[in-house]
Design a protein that fits this description.
Elements (H helix, E strand, L loop, with lengths): L4 E5 L5 H10 L3 E5 L3 H8 L10 H10 L3 E4 L7 E4 L5 E2 L3 E2 L2 H10 L8 E4 L7 H10 L11 E4 L9 H7 L2 E5 L2 H11 L7 E5 H32 L3 H8 L22 H8 L5 H25 L6 E5 L14 H11 L3 E5 L12 E2 L3 H5 L4 E4 L4 H4 L3 H7 L4 E4 L6 H6 L3 E4 L6
Parallel strand pairs: 1-2, 1-4, 2-3, 4-7, 7-8, 9-10, 11-12, 11-14, 12-13, 14-15, 15-16
Antiparallel strand pairs: 5-6, 8-9
Helix pairs in contact: 1-3, 4-5, 8-10, 8-11, 10-11, 11-12
Length: 425
């Protein structure tokens, strides 16, 4: 199939880079978002998200007219849905954004069009949710129009490169739909493009993140066991991973982001009788912030009126994405226990922190504090001059939940350092 015009619904962490990539390769792209702040930022030459290289990319395609952003859907040859799929209540998938996007496409759907869902969704969403909505157009899915599911599989901070180089899975409701999806994405994808069924593609996406979630959960349990048995978990994992068939991930303060911390719940919701292990892993990772808070209490005692400097709020290093961040959960819990928390997040200085306060630089965060709590392994924190760290702060107590600083060096400078997964308490 040939695609001259593409509409992309949702201009977030995936939709905007995808829209820019298609536009860069010569396709006329219409980007649609219902958030006026997103559209205002783009039309003023600013970005509402942080992604290396993306600003220049977006400027280029908007300035040459290949990417036009609106708050409405435009008639196109293909429609890509890239909206959020958060959860609500008892960890249930909120598909309202997907449904609203599909409804918005219906008036513009014509024979021969392709619709692709990119949003991570529970198994059978494409068939059971999208087909009935889109067929309100009077057209038959798989016959009059084509429908596929193609999940994003990119790493924040590397999105522009991985959109092009990563393998891509296209799941169609029939073989013709899968082939049409392949024709669409080969416009810019250089990695292998695999075609399969829509349900398989939905399953693959959730499997990938669930596998990682389970791996992180066992690492987090290992960190707790190490503290119980007087072992350094970081050393133990390093040695265990020398085994050719072992690859244990690192523990940390919890699991965040819009993928690993969310996607496994789609399995649990869809088949609660078959997901005992997946549920247990989720419960371990969701309880890790409580474990960190308990460790801080062991160090400082009663937290009432204690001053704590938190370094990092993002869900992972070197990104500005704070969705489902365990660090924010920890800040909230510490604050509710009476602590005064000052957080420094270099990638989101203007974040509206409900509990605690934001610092605009490292010095302001740590100058008057009882404890420095490191929750995100940002490069800026990793590479700091430890002598400078000592000079900026009045405290000598550190709790490092991500293992970024060398313990002997800090101890030589007079710090008392505690680490997640290392028995010191």
């Amino acid at each position: 199939m040939n695609f001259e015009k593409i509409s992309i619904l949702g201009l977030g962490y995936i939709g905007l880079p995808t829209a820019s990539m298609f536009a860069y390769h010569g396709v006329q792209v219409y980007g649609m978002d219902v958030n006026p702040k997103v559209l205002e930022a783009l039309n003023q030459g600013r970005l509402h998200i942080h992604e290396p290289g993306l600003l220049e990319f977006v400027h280029n395609v908007i300035n040459n007219g290949k990417l036009v952003v609106n708050d409405f859907v435009c008639p196109s040859d293909a429609f890509i849905i890239a909206v959020p799929t958060p959860f609500y209540g008892e960890k249930l998938a909120d598909l309202s954004y997907v449904k609203n996007a599909a409804e918005a496409i219906v008036p513009h759907l014509k024979k021969g069009n392709l619709v692709v869902l990119e949003s991570t969704s529970p198994p059978l969403t494409t068939q059971n949710i999208l087909v009935p909505i889109l067929e309100k157009s009077g057209l038959k899915a798989g016959e009059d129009f084509l429908l596929a599911y193609s999940p994003e599989r990119v790493l924040p901070g590397q999105i522009l490169r991985e959109l092009v180089e990563n393998a891509r899975v296209i799941g169609g409701i029939n073989s013709e739909s899968a082939q049409a999806g392949k024709d669409l994405y080969k416009i810019f994808v250089k990695g292998e493009i695999i075609t399969t069924t829509a349900a398989t593609a939905e399953m693959v996406k959730i499997m990938e993140n669930t596998y990682r979630d389970v791996n992180i959960a066992i690492a987090n349990e290992f960190s707790r066991l190490s503290e119980r048995f007087g072992v350094d978990v970081w050393e133990a994992i390093k040695i265990a991973n020398l085994h050719p068939r072992v690859n244990i991930l690192n523990p940390g303060p919890g699991v965040g982001g819009h993928c690993i911390s969310v996607d496994p719940w789609f399995f649990v919701e869809s088949a609660p009788d078959l997901t005992k292990l997946i549920l247990a892993a989720r419960q371990v990772n969701d309880s890790q912030p409580d474990f960190v808070v308990n460790q801080v209490e062991k160090i400082l005692g009663n937290l009432q009126n204690k001053k704590i400097a938190v370094l990092g709020l993002a869900y992972k290093p070197d990104v500005d994405d704070l969705r489902e961040s365990p660090a924010i959960d920890i800040v909230t819990k510490l604050s509710k226990l009476g602590a005064f928390v000052t957080a420094f997040e270099p990638f989101k200085l203007d974040f509206d922190l409900k509990y605690g306060q934001m610092a605009q630089n490292l010095g302001d965060a740590i100058k008057e504090t009882d404890l420095i709590l490191v929750l995100v392994a940002h490069s800026e924190f990793k590479n700091i001059d430890l002598v400078k760290l000592k000079n900026l702060s009045n405290t000598n107590v550190i709790y490092d939940a991500v293992n970024i600083w060398d313990k002997p060096k800090l101890e030589d400078l007079g710090f008392q350092i505690f680490k997640l997964g290392v028995s010191e308490l």
